[in-house]
Amino acid sequence: MAKKILLTGDRPSGPLHIGHYFGSLVNRLAMQDDYEPYIMVADVQALTDNFNQPEKVRENVLEVAMDNIAAGIDPKKSALFIQSQIPQIAELTVFFSNLVTVNTLKRNPTVKAEIAEKRDLFGSEGESVTYGFLGYPVSQAADITIVRADIVPVGEDQLPMLELTREIVEKFHHIYDCDIFPRPQAKLSDAPRIMGLDGSSKMSKSLNNAVYLKDNPEVTAEKIRAAKTDSGSSITYDPKNRPEISNLVMLYALIHNAKPEDAVKDLAGMNYVAFKEKLATDLNHYLAPLRAKRAELEAKPHYVKELLEMGRKRVLDKAEETISLVRSAMKINY
Ligand code: ATP
Ligand code: MG
Q: Which of 176, 255, 264, 292 could anchor a disulfide with 329, C-beta 3.0 to 4.6 Å?
């Protein structure tokens, strides 16, 4: 039986952090054998809010690719590719953009939160938001459907994007009287939203509140020590009332492959300082093999580029097949 298709990806807006690892990478690793996986470095999407910083996006393409490979993505199993190298995605985005209203995009809760975070770029009321940024969920629907993906391992912030993708797919099939795409489902991990170390609601590369996979042990320990906590002293897992300490307990649980409710029992009686030291030591231990592999890759950028080229070739055939089905359905197959 043919394997189901998996697509996911990351924006090259910075290197990957532990929120990505526990929020999305763990699932892509676990699913690598049983699915046909496509892992995209979403440079076109990163440019929607970094259009004035092309060097930053370019640099981070390799960073994100190395993070994925170091974490265990096997480029022989998973097609690792760069979004802009598949022009059929851009073409499909144009066709899909007719099927989505501007009001729907403006109501998307993730887009709304991101516009609010990017006041410098988009104005305090979002009055300068660009057409491209507002529309990135449409482009994301095209990323997913160009390989006709069944499943998309993501963090919680991406659920509205998956819902929109299913709406677009249904509308497309209905209007053009065809059945080309599966209805893609999100796959969430046990930690679908790791909070930032500054207490903000999401660890994010754009907010500088993260432990990066590539950080060295000293920097990691420093960041954990400085992580925001409440003024309490006991270590508990109570995300609703004590979100910051609970986020650290969650990280501790994830690296020990335990449930936070159980992991917290190990920590009884410890004060915040001692707990943070232990968390930093254990996190550094957990990430050590990944970091060693990453250091090897950093010394071989050409090899990483070759892997991306291998991925591009694998996606291209599939994308061409999808776009010709789309053109036929839309009666533009002249
Ligand atoms: P940016 O701020 O540029 O959007 P980001 O940190 O949100 O960066 P993305 O590249 O947008 O990272 O996200 C890649 C994947 O990681 C997505 O599936 C997203 O849902 C997931 N993810 C990102 N941040 C977290 C987090 N803090 N916790 C869990 N999952 C996350
Ligand atoms: Mg994001």
A: 176
Range of the domain at 14: 5-193+301-329
Ligand 1 binding pocket (C-beta < 6 A) is: 10-11, 13, 19-20, 23-24, 154-155, 157-158, 192-194, 202-206
Task: Answer yes or no: do 75 and 156 share one domain.
Answer: yes
pLDDT digits (tens, 9 = 90+) for 30-50: 999 999 999 999 999 999 999
Q: What is the CATH number of the domain that holds 238?
A: 1.10.240.10
- Residue 247: inside a domain: yes
DSSP-assigned letters across all residues of 186-212 = EE--S-S-PPPTTS-SS--GGGT---B
Per residue in 133-156, pLDDT (tens digit) is 999 999 999 999 999 999 999 999
CA of 42 to the centre of ligand 2 (A): 11
How many domains would you assign to the chain? Answer: 2
Which ligand 1 atom sits closest to the C-alpha of 25?
A: 16
Instruction: State the first-to-last Cα distance of the chain, in angstroms, to the nearest integer.
Output: 34
The CATH number for 170's domain is 3.40.50.620
Which residue's alpha carbon is at the smallest distance from atom 26 of ligand 1? Answer: 19
pTM of the model: 0.96
